[in-house]
Amino acid sequence: MHRFVVPLVFMLLLPLSAQAVEPDEMLADPVLEERARVISKDLRCVVCQNQDIDSSNAGVARDLRLLVRERLLEGDSNNQVMAYIQARYGDYVLLKPPFKPSTYALWGTPIALTLIALLFGLNIVLRGRRKSALPELTEAEERQVAKFIDNEKSGDPS
Amino acid sequence: MKRILAFAPLVIAVIFGGFFLWGLNPNRDPSEIPSVLIEQPAPEFELAAVEGLQTPGLSRADLTGHDRPIVLNVFASWCVPCRAEHTVLTNLVERDGIRLFGINYKDKPKDAVRWLANLGNPYERIGSDLNGRIGIEWGISGVPESFIIGTDGTVLFRYVGPVVGDEAIAKFREALTQAGALEERNS
Amino acid sequence: MTPEFGHFALALALALALVQSVLPILGAARGNLMWMRSARALSVAQLLFVGLAFAALMRAFTVSDFTVLNVAENSHSLKPMLYKVAATWGSHEGSLLLWVLILTAFGAAVSFFGSNIPEPLKARTLSVQAWISVGFLSFMLLTSNPFERLFPPPIDGNDLNPLLQDVGLAMHPPLLYLGYVGFSIVFSFAVAALLEGRIDTAWARWVRPWTLAAWMSLTAGIALGSWWAYYELGWGGWWFWDPVENVSFMPWLLGTALLHSAIVTEKRDAFKSWTILLAILTFSLSLLGTFVVRSGLLTSVHAFAVDPERGLYILMLLALSIGGSLALFAWRAPMMEAGGLFKPVSREAGLLVNNLILAAATGTVLFGTLYPLFLEAVTGDKISVGPPFFNASFIPMMLPLVFVMGLGPYLSWKRADLAGVFQRLRFVAILSVLGVLAIWYMTMGGPVLAYLSILLAIWLFLATLREWALRIRLFDVSFKEALRRARNLPRATHGMTMAHAGLAVAIFGFVGSSAWKSEQVVFVGPGSNIFIAGFDVTFEGVQRLSGPNYFADRGTLVVRRDGEIVTMLYPERRTFPVAQSSTTESAIRSTLAGDLYASIAAPASEDAEESGAWTLRILYEPLVNFIWIGSFMLVLGGGLSLSDRRLRVGAPRRRTIDATTSVPAE
Predict the structure, then answer these.
(1) Are the C-beta atoms of A65 and A90 separated by less than 8 Å?
(2) What chains are in contact with A, requiring at least 3 Cβ pairs below 8 Å?
(3) Chains with 3 or more CB pairs closer than 8 angstroms to B?
């Protein structure tokens, strides 16, 4: 794992493309291996810019992948494995932020924004209803409108 | 109400702007990850000596019970910046009497022995972390990294990257002084 | 001399922009037609000089003039010509120049094609556009001069990051910038309208083509970037919710909302202040993207060289443009009258739902992207907000939108008959359920969310097509008559059908390639066999080849199905000695059903490497091509809509359109 001084002149500090998880790291048990892949995809590589350890070729990422599999073989649940790594690297490694006081605001955002949007929408619609003293059309007028619309739709100049 | 609503976007934008301004602080490194070990007891570990080296191995027990806080340095012969840092560490040991312990991280013992033979060995004890597992226990993200550990085994400070250059050395020395590992001098 | 000439041209452009930022708007205030009309010559001249500067920089790249710092740092004499040209916008300075070029091009385009726009509005709009020009030209001249000289010049350049030496990515920034910067003109229109204090249906109609053009480019730019990530990064993903991806996605989301709310403003004279706000915010988010990418504020896989000083300058520009326009909005918006009334069930209400969901989703992405920064500022804690958060929050918000999208076009303006709409959609609903059951039967297992998304995608697709069929009475009248009706339909209607259906198609791709993707990662040597998704893949070996500025290890794979050879795949690993990095050139067999995707790499562990093995990664991504087809349909839909003759000719003089004479439903 070399710590490189990334040449600042490059437009993008891109990840070295694909190396990611390697066959010799994988577990023989397909169920455990699948769980390992799922866990690895939710753990952030600590030396890369913004990547999960499953798709990172950094040395530490590889070590962590091996560690994840070792813990799984020892019978840890997915959550226990995550907790094990979180205990050593902090919340930073969790791509899915933990639900706790410091992230209530984050997890609450989609719900709060949806509610605000709902209130906003209801307000507009109800205001429209209150004000809409639009007189109902008579039956004859309705027919006239329907005919007009039909003509418009068919593209006939009416 | 309408008026307040019309102001809302501006207010939100200003708040965001404040955070951006804070985020541009040149001393802030967005990719720096704080160690969870600070103020926590050092992790349990036990590492054998580097094969072919006289220096004994390292375990957690070796880090505690000293009269002053000590420095634990994670290094490797393949790590280029470690070479530059080596001089700084040697100086700290020889001139300032710092006690230095090492973890040789994912290194071939042969390479490590040669490296230390060439550059000198300022470490009291060196544990060989062949597979990098103990590195994970310490939450390291790369080499070199240096920790200052209190007499009771509490991790007091972590420095990521080589302690090289005046600024880094000053920062590290200040941390050492604060920990009580280094007496303030007038030099 | 050319670089100095380019530098000088930029300085001249700045001078022109300064004049343009004052004279026309003063003219508009004083009713001086001459001053107002000066905008035309000024904006064209500005474009000319920025264009000359751009050409000068491009020339420096094409002739590999390493006395220019920017060229030395980002190019190499051995690089293929295409990438020398593309390197012009490969660096921070160069891309900024491209940004400004597009900005001035849009300004010139408005003064050129906007003959139907009243002079005062046009003059104000172009002045506002010039304010943005002044900001970015001065930023470039003061902090990021692309023409900086280097002495002594190096013998050869540093080369462009090899990952970027790719046709897809060469075109990605220009398209993305066309989108980002295209929204600048909409922003300028909005600010000009606020200054005039008047927004009406005519305004919305003038703005629409520009919004559409920007939106199309942004759509194409994002899709292209995503496609590039898919085939170049080598692990088959196409969207990572990376901060830099998010900042390009947010203007798209809000731009989509703008596109729809502007329709309401145009047809019904309603949602006026909302449309203005969206116009301002969409461009603000584009600016935010520019800021985030160049300031090092967030950690991302894609980012320019980090420089706090530049960051501070852009932040200042942001504060002036966003802060100023929002303050103007806060002052003027309450004076705008609410327009046409509508019932809770109506086309307007449907579009309102569209806007609210898109705005809430944009807010979620924005907050999620910036939350690590907020938290760090407040508590010092560092957290990561990654794909799991966005998938869990964004996708559920989008599902109701997709549902409403199916209904929307059936609703008539002002008030609609929901029961009647459902009546007409009964068949579509039944077919959607049957369709998803069939898919469930074929796949046998997958996330519930995947089936739900597929259900809604079928619903949207069928409902959209049925609406189009009803419009031309496809099954009621003779085919010839239906065709005649189709021809008579406004192009914008076809555009909407195409774009909505395109989104449905893209959703198939999103879901298929994420829920039913299969993957094999194995060490291979000559003769190794891998079975995946019904294919039998044989690895023949690796050959060393040499390219212009790289050498490549090319693997040969024979793909068989039922014993028959289907295709050969040649994934490559390219190593660029000058740039000291390597890229993966994946090999893909594309079919509509799915992609068979192969990439090779040297194994990470030394033992495996010594044994001569290669790491072969084979993926099967079902339906992934639907993403690109759907994206193309979105762009095409935008194009159809843009080509609508109502937008081009006979656009209205400013007049109030009587609600009763407007087209009732379309």
Answers:
(1) no
(2) B, C
(3) A, C
Q: Does C281 touch chain B (CB under 8 A)?
A: yes
Highest-pLDDT range among C93-97, C227-231, C323-327: C323-327
C586 vs C601: CA distance, rounded Å: 10
Cα–Cα distance, C93 to C70 (Å, whole number): 8
Tokens of C391: 């998938």
Reported confidence tier of residue C657, pLDDT bands at 50, 70, 90? very low
Q: Whole-angstrom Cα distance, residue A99 to residue A107?
A: 7
Residue extent(s) of CATH 1.10.8.640 domains in chain A? 18-98
C615: Cβ–Cβ under 8 A, 6 or more apart, which residues?
A19, A22, A23, C521, C522, C523, C524, C600, C601, C602, C603, C604, C608
C614-622 vs C594-601, strand pairing mode = antiparallel
Distances (CA, A) of C509 to A151, B95, C77, C240, C619: 39, 65, 40, 15, 15
Residue-wise pLDDT tens digits, C533-567: 889 999 998 999 988 888 899 999 999 999 899 99
Q: What letter would DSSP give residue C15?
A: H
- Nearest residue in B to A67, CA atom: B133
Q: CB–CB of A92 and C360 under 8 A?
A: no
CB contact under 8 A, B23 and C373: yes
Asked if residues C79 and C18 have their Cβ atoms less than 8 Å apart, the reply is no
Tell me if C512 sits within 8 A of C628, measured CB to CB: no
In terms of CA atoms, which chain B residue is nearest residue A59?
Answer: B142
Residues of B at the A interface (Cβ-Cβ below 8 Å)?
Answer: 31, 33-36, 43, 78-81, 106, 131-133, 135-143, 161
State whether CATH 2.70.50.60 applies to domain A18-98.
no
pLDDT band at C650 (very low <50, low <70, confident <90, very high): very low
**Matching residue, tokens 């703005």:** C207
Check if the beta carbon of residue C288 is closer than 8 Å to that of residue C243: no
- Which tokens in the block code for residue A101? 């006081």
- Does the bond joining C526 to the residue before it have cis omega, within 30 degrees of 0? no
User: Using CB atoms, which residue from C284, C297, C329 is nearest to B23?
Assistant: C297
> Which range is least confidently modeled, A16-20, A36-40, B8-12, C461-465?
A16-20
Hey, is the C-beta of C382 within 8 angstroms of any chain B C-beta? yes
Q: What is the pLDDT of residues C294-343, one digit of tens each?
A: 877 777 666 565 667 788 888 999 999 999 999 999 999 888 876 677 88
Nearest to C580 by CA among B126, B156, A7: A7
Q: How far apart are CA C487 and CA C290, in angstroms?
A: 42
Strands B100-105 vs B70-75: parallel, antiparallel or unpaired: parallel
Q: CA angle C289-C295-C297, nearest 5°?
A: 85
Amino acid occupying residue C563: G
Q: How many CB pairs under 8 A join A and C?
A: 204
Is the pLDDT assigned to residue A152 strictly greater than 70? no
- Residue B71: which H helix or E strand, with range? strand B70-75
Selection from C14-18, C174-178, C195-199 with the highest mean pLDDT: C14-18
The answer to ipTM > 0.85 is yes
Q: In what order do the strands lie in the sheet with B70-75?
A: B125-129, B100-105, B70-75, B145-149, B155-160
Q: Could you give the dihedral angle defined by the CA atoms of residues C645, C649, C655 and C659, in that order, rounded to the nearest 10 degrees?
A: -20
pTM: 0.89
Question: ∠ CA(A59), CA(A64), CA(A65), 5° rounding?
Answer: 95
Q: b/e for A65-89, b at 16 or more Cβ within 10 A?
A: bbbbbebbeeebeeeebbeebbebb
Question: CB atoms < 10 A from the CB of C396, how many?
Answer: 14
Nearest neighbour of C604 by CB, restricted to A55, A57, A106? A57
Q: Listing from the earlier edge strand, what are the strands of the sheet with C594-601?
A: C518-524, C614-622, C594-601, C587-590
Domains and CATH numbers, chain B: 36-179 (3.40.30.10)
